[in-house]
């Protein structure tokens, strides 16, 4: 089954997962979140597949987060809007296989996800 990878080319973890998939012959499609930001609806779909809340996929160490959003008490809907406008704040990579998804870190967890 084709694995979709929500990817940021500037992220070493994201690149490591692509390398792992490639080396192991796993067919995948790259969705570059920086060039093609996810819509609000796409983020909601990803969260459902991850079975997580929006707060679980926010990169809280990111400079933009620390300068602009740290300590803000935003609703789930507001955070989803922020992430659709600022894809650099989304944890990556996110792997999607059918109706399930996972954060691709650490890369060791990807093997289990692929084999499942």
TrEMBL record:
Residues 40-67 form a coiled coil. SUPFAM superfamilies: Thioredoxin-like (SSF52833). It holds the Pfam family ArsC. The keyword Repeat does not apply. Transmembrane segments: none annotated. Belongs to the ArsC family. This is Arsenate reductase (Glutaredoxin). The lineage of its organism: Bacteria, Pseudomonadati, Bacteroidota, Flavobacteriia, Flavobacteriales.
């Amino acid at each position: 089954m084709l694995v979709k990878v929500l990817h940021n080319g500037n992220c070493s973890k994201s690149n490591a997962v692509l390398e792992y998939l490639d080396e192991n012959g796993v067919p995948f499609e790259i969705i570059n979140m920086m060039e093609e930001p996810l819509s609000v609806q796409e983020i909601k779909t990803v969260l459902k597949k991850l079975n997580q809340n929006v707060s679980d996929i926010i990169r809280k160490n990111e400079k933009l987060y620390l300068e602009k959003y740290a300590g803000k008490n935003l609703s789930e809907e507001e955070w989803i809007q922020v992430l659709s406008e600022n894809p650099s704040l989304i944890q990556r990579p996110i792997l999607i296989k059918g109706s399930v998804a996972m954060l691709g870190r650490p890369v060791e967890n990807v093997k289990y996800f692929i084999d499942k």
